[in-house]
Design brief:
Blueprint (H helix, E strand, L loop, with lengths): L2 H27 L6 H13 L6 H31 L6 H22 L10 H25 L1
Helix pairs in contact: 1-3, 1-5, 2-3, 3-4, 4-5
Length: about 150
């Protein structure tokens, strides 16, 4: 199996872990889903000149496409890691940290560029809420990549 395929599979597994941790957090704390993925879809569609439709259809499309951005980020981070790591054996803590950072950058950087968030203004609790699911992503993706290597 080539390193890109290993990275994509690891990224898919990591994305599943991130989603599980996120949805558990929402269930346990009773917090709502983040609105930034939907807002990102809306801004990207506007910039591309693509209409999402009207009313409920537009809202449903944003609700469907928002999570797809997350899947793309998770797969992309895994693919980038696979391209860089190749067939080398990377210590699990280093691989976990690298994949965690890639996933955090992949999700926060575009939303920061769109003006939807500013990590410089996040509280410690905000950082923790963002870091924990991404750490789950990094740990699972690193483990899967290593197992496939």
């Amino acid at each position: 199996m080539d390193r890109l395929t290993r990275g994509l599979i690891a990224g898919a597994a990591g994305t599943t872990a991130l989603n599980v941790v996120t949805y558990l957090d929402m269930a346990l704390r009773g917090r709502p889903a983040s609105s930034t993925p939907d807002q990102s879809v809306e801004m990207i569609a506007d910039a591309a000149g693509v209409g999402l439709g009207d009313g409920e259809k537009a809202e449903n499309r944003k609700a469907g496409l928002g999570p797809m951005l997350g899947f793309g980020t998770g797969l992309g981070a895994g693919a980038v890691y696979g391209a860089v790591a190749g067939g080398r054996s990377v210590p699990k803590p280093v691989a976990t940290a690298a994949l965690t950072v890639l996933a955090m950058l992949g999700s926060s950087a575009p939303m920061t560029a769109l003006g939807l968030t500013d990590p410089r203004e996040w509280s410690a609790a905000d950082w923790l809420m963002d870091a924990v699911p991404h750490l789950a992503y990094g740990a699972v993706a690193a483990g899967v990549y290593d197992a496939l290597n």
